[in-house]
Amino acid sequence: MLFVGDDWAEDHHDIEVQDETGRRLAKARFTEGLAGVAQLHELVAQHLDEDEADQVVVGIETDRGPWVLALIAAGYRVFAINPLQVARYRERQSVSGAKSDAADAHALADMVRTDSHQLRSVAGDSDQAEAVKVVARAHKSLIWERTRHAQRLRNVLREFFPAALQAFDDLTAADALELLAKAPDPDAAARLTIAQISAALKHAHRHHASDKARVIRAALRTEQLRQPAAVTTAYAATVRAQVAVIGTLNAQIKTMGAQVEAHFGQHPDAEIYLSQPGMGPILGARVLAEFGDDDHRYADARSRKNCEDHGVSSQAVA
């Protein structure tokens, strides 16, 4: 058997090939892309016959992309290894723990040679499952990004306009964003009328808009400590920028959510996931994305449960 460590970067791959004893047979650097994959196949062919591709075990720090697909298509057994695992393994082997591309390639080859029974192989999921994975992860990333920007907006408001935090429970909500865009500082907010606030609430389809508008106006007019005028102007510009970013993210999250539902709905296992209590299309798509649909990925139900216990389901829900 051959054990290959593949430390990938944006434009190249550092490769180390070992035999079953851990002896290094070759090391090389190949460019990303078709030419690089062909060179890797040629290197493997120097040590194994073409019909022995299943005797090639590859460790790499990703489970996606055309390079990984090319390795799987060649018949190699591919293990996607978390970079943190590689870092811990490297520390075991070296006192300094110094990182380098060649050292990581060596560590990856070592890991698949000695610990492949504890590693997770890249599943042979269907194209439909891969498509669900792409859009589900993109949708989740957009939500995470919105959360980060909402926290930044909250921190800015806390510095110069704390009354806004009393007025708006959810800084990502459409009404809060509309009003903060119109009135991003205490003086402008105090001049907002009941009609203006009510209009924003109605645009966001809020119930009892008039009553809520009075509560919001009272909160915005609360006495508070002030920053100097020049500093307030600077903070207001920051609020406008964050509001614009969050508004764009809201729109893209909605668009990507529709894509998630569309791709998930086309998968033959969608009805099975949706039959589970409390699981809608978005959560169902995330769970499918993490578990995959390769029939041979899990030996039995217990294996799948072990995978869940190690964080697959929590990753989907996050």
Structure notes:
- One of its GO terms (molecular function) is DNA binding.
- InterPro entries: Transp_IS110-like_N (IPR002525), Transpos_IS110 (IPR047650).
- It holds the Pfam family DEDD_Tnp_IS110.
- Residues 4-162 form the Transposase IS110-like N-terminal domain.
- With 318 residues, this protein is of the alpha/beta class.
- It folds into three domains: 2-122, Nucleotidyltransferase, domain 5 (2-Layer Sandwich), CATH 3.30.420.10; 128-139 and 261-317, no CATH class; 153-257, no CATH class.
- The protein contains 15 helices and five strands.
- The protein has a five-stranded mixed beta sheet with strand order 3-2-1-4-5.
- It starts with a strand and ends with a helix.
- Mean pLDDT is 90; it is low at 310-314.
Please supply descriptive tags for the structure shown above.
15 helices, Nucleotidyltransferase, domain 5, single chain, five-stranded mixed β-sheet, alpha/beta
| Mean pLDDT, all residues | 90
From the N-terminal CA to the C-terminal CA, the straight-line distance is 39 Å
Q: How many domains make up the 3D coordinates?
A: 3
Strand content: 5-15%
Helix content: 55-70%
Going by CATH, what is the homologous superfamily of the largest domain?
Ribonuclease H-like superfamily/Ribonuclease H
Give the C-alpha Rg.
27 Å
Number of helices: 15
CATH architecture of the largest domain: 2-Layer Sandwich
Unreliable runs? 310-314
The top-level CATH class of the largest domain is Alpha Beta
Shape: elongated
Q: Major sheet, described briefly? A: 5 strands, mixed
CATH topology of the largest domain: Nucleotidyltransferase, domain 5
Query: Got a strand count?
Result: 5
Main sheet: strand order: 3-2-1-4-5
The oligomeric state is single chain
Pfam families: DEDD_Tnp_IS110
Organism: Actinopolymorpha pittospori
GO molecular function: DNA binding; transposase activity
Protein name: Transposase
